[in-house]
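ingest -> validate -> predict -> emit
validate: passed (alphabet ok, no gaps, 71 aa)
predict: started
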Amino acid sequence: MFRRKIKAEPYDRENLKPVIRASICTGEQIAGFLDIRTGKFTELMLIQNRRDMKEFLARYGIAEEEIKKEW
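emit:
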């Protein structure tokens, strides 16, 4: 009934790119950030449904068009 409003957390938009990593075999999806310079992926959250995706996008102030899916 009373949902807590999610405040957008800042991240380094110049060096980090939001990415969804998906498994081809199981379909498991992990949301996180890819460091453009080093290629290191930082896992932040398991995406199990549409609600989880919306929460991730709202938490970091990301537009749905910005996020890319990697297999």
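The first strand starts at residue 16 and ends at 22.
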